[in-house]
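Input structure tokens:
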């Protein structure tokens, strides 16, 4: 009688299973953190912390997936498909944030940007509107180190001058704020048809996460025209990845276009 010894089936890789589970969990955490932050169901700081945690889990899952591939290759265990799936899911979670971070390499670590560094527009209502987890409202005077960092990183950010009366520019600015869906803080500083009082405060939200940022726009008479300064400050974080500077550039570009189109 001849006995045939069948080889034992290859064991399944525990590392590959853990990597896939962790990748799926990181995708869920990241998605829910994004949704809750976007819908303002949680405060911005908590939502951003949860989002960062989800991205960290995705990075760990990608690392485990690579380790699992090595284990499968060297031991002959099953689980190569799970390891590849874990890497693909983790890459999908990390792809967008990694692209944004890479495109912003070199941006100064600022959360407060102003067109006038010597006499910046002030935030008076922003401090009362910010929550307990938000940063304090920016001070009236910009520290010298911050001013130097801005000059080096954003040399193009400066005062805008338009050949329109200050009151007309103020009404255009309010129109742009309305178009952008920004939230005016308190009664507007420039009632339509009324005399200008100098400054508008509003809250802008970031396009993707909907994080809140404070904006102060100061409009002064400049001969027969107007001099406009703008300050944009984040409520959370240690760096804005250039978002505040971009917000000022975009607003000034639209304000200039609106002024040029005014008869």
């Amino acid at each position: 009688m001849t006995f045939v010894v069948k080889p034992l089936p290859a064991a399944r890789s525990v590392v590959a299973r853990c990597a896939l589970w962790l990748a799926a969990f990181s995708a869920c955490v990241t998605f829910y953190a994004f949704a809750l932050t976007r819908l303002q169901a949680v405060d911005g700081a908590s939502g951003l912390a949860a989002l960062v945690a989800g991205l960290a889990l995705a990075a760990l899952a990608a690392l485990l997936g690579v380790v699992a591939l090595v284990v499968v290759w060297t031991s002959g265990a099953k689980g190569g498909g799970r390891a590849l799936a874990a890497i693909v899911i983790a890459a999908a979670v990390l792809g967008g944030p990694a692209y944004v971070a890479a495109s912003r390499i070199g941006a100064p670590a600022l959360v407060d940007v102003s067109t006038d560094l010597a006499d910046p527009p002030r935030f008076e209502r922003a401090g009362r509107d910010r929550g307990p987890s938000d940063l304090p409202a920016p001070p009236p005077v910009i520290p010298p180190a911050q001013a130097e960092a801005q000059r080096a990183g954003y040399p193009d950010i400066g005062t805008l001058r338009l050949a329109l009366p200050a009151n007309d520019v103020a009404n255009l600015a309010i129109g742009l704020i309305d178009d952008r869906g920004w939230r005016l803080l308190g009664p507007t500083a420039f009632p339509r048809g009324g005399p200008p009082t100098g400054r508008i405060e509003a809250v802008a939200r970031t396009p993707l996460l909907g994080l809140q940022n404070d904006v102060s726009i100061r409009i002064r008479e400049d001969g027969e025209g107007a001099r406009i300064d703008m300050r944009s400050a984040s409520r959370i974080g240690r760096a804005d990845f250039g978002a505040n500077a971009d917000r000022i550039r975009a607003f000034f570009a639209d304000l200039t276009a609106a002024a040029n189109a005014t008869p």
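The longest helix spans residues 44-75. Residues 26 and 97 are 14 Å apart (CA to CA).
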